[in-house]
Amino acid sequence: MTKMMLTPINPLRIRGGRLVTMDGLMERLERAVTRLEQMSVTMQSSGMANGDCVNGISGGLSPCVEAFDMLMRGPVSEYLSNSKAIGSDVEKHAEMVNKALQTQRSFLKMASTHQEPAQTELRDLLKPISDHIQEIQNFRERNRGSNLFNHLSAVSESIPALGWVAVSQKPGPYVKEMNDAAIFYTNRVLKDYKESDKRHVDWVCSYLTIWTEMQSFIKQHHTTGLVWSKTGPIAPSSVFIAPTTSAAPCPPPPPPPGPPPVFTDDDSQPKSGSPAAPHSALFAQLNQGMNITKGLKHVSDDKKTHKNPNLRSQETPTKNRKPGSGNSPRAAVQKKTPLLELEGKKWRVENFEQNHDLVIEETELKQVVYIFGCNNSTVQVKGKINSIIIDNCKKLGLVFENVVGIVEVINSKAIQLQVLGTVPTMSINKTEGCQVYLSKDALNCDIISAKSSEMNIMIPKGDDDYREFPVHEQFKTVWDGSRLVTEPTEIAG
To answer: Which segments carry the region annotation Disordered (predicted)?
Structure first.
C-alpha cells in the first residue's frame, strides 16, 4: 500500500468543519476591537453625562461618595420607610432629614473632585447644610403640642451632627455626642411604645443606626477631618452650580497647586451684612476650641447683677435710641398668646403669666396634659388622666388627683407638685428647685431624677402636716473588686 504524505497548510485553520484563512481571522479580530472601542466611548459618555468625574477622570464616583451612598441606601432608607409607616409629623420631619443628607452628599461629592476653597467660600458652601439644620429644629419648635414631640426632639437634638464636615481633628466623636443627645428622647419613645406599637421601636433603631454608621463612615474616610481632593479645580462657591454642558468631557488634572493665597483680615471673615454670616456661624464656631472665649469682656463685681440686685431694675442703655422710637429691649420681646384647650387627646396649657385660676375638668383616662412656658401660675387637674408633662416653666404650681402613667418635669425652675390621689411614677430632669407633696395613697410612687437640684419630697404625717426629705444630689462611686458601687454621700442631705 502506497503511504500518502499530508503536507501542512499554514495559512488555513479548520473551524467547525470549515477552512478559515488567516486573513479572515484578522478581519474578525479587527471587528471585535472596533466594538470594544465603541463600548468604551459609550461608557465614558454616560459617565460624563452623569457628572461622575473623579480627579479629572470620568466613569465613576470616589470611594467616599460610594460609601455615603451605601449609608443612604441602608439605614437612611429604612428610617424613611419607618417614618412613613408612623406618618404625620414624623414623616414630614424625615423628609427634611433626607433633603439635608442629600445636600451633604452633594457637598462630599464636590470635595472629592475639588481642592479646598478659601475660608469665605467654604462658609458659603456650608450654608445649605446649616439652613437644613435650622429648618429641622424650627419644625420641632413649631410643633411642641404634637403627640409625637419626643420623636421630633430626638431628631432636632441630634441633627447638628451634620456639622461634622466643619470639625477638624476628630469629627467622629462629635457625631457620637450628637447621637447621645438623641438617646434621651428615643428612650422616652421606647417607654411609651415598646409594648404597644412596634413601628416606633423600629423607627428608633433605624434612626440611631444612621449616626452609628456615620461614625464608621467618618472613621474610614475622614478620620481627622474632611478630606478634599489634592487635584482638580478649586471648589466653586455653591454645591448646586450645574455644569455648562452635560456632554462635555472632564477637564484634565491641573498642575500642582502653588503657594497658599494670603488673606487680609477683611477677607478672612464674612461681612456683617452678608446673608451667609448668621448661618455660617454654626460651623465657624466649631473650630474655635478654647479661642471661643477670647472675645468675652471681663465684668467687674460691681456690675454683676447677681451680686447687685438693684442693677436688675435699671434699663440697659441703648446707643443712638430716640425717645418714643420703641427700640427698648422690653419692646423687642413679644409675648406669646396664652392657650388652654383640648387638642385631640392632649390638653395644652401654654404661655400663661401670673394666672392661678387654671383648672382642667371633665378629663378622661386616655388624655394627657402638656404644660409649656407658664410662669408664676397654678394649674389644677381634676379626675383621672394618663400623664402630665411640665416643660420650660418657672414658679409653677400643679395640683392633680390621679395619674395612671407618669408626671414629668423638664427644663424648669421652682416647681411645686401636689398629689391628691395616686401616681405611679414621677420624672424630674434638668430642673432647679422642685417640691413634691405626696398623699398617703401615693407613698409608693417611684421618683426618678437626673441633672436636677434643690429637690424635696414632702411626706404626710398628719392632717395638713408634712415632713420634708431632701433628694440626694451628690454621690460617691467605688470599685468593690467586681463592680461599681454608687452611694449618696453624707453631705448630700
So the answer is: 244-278, 298-335
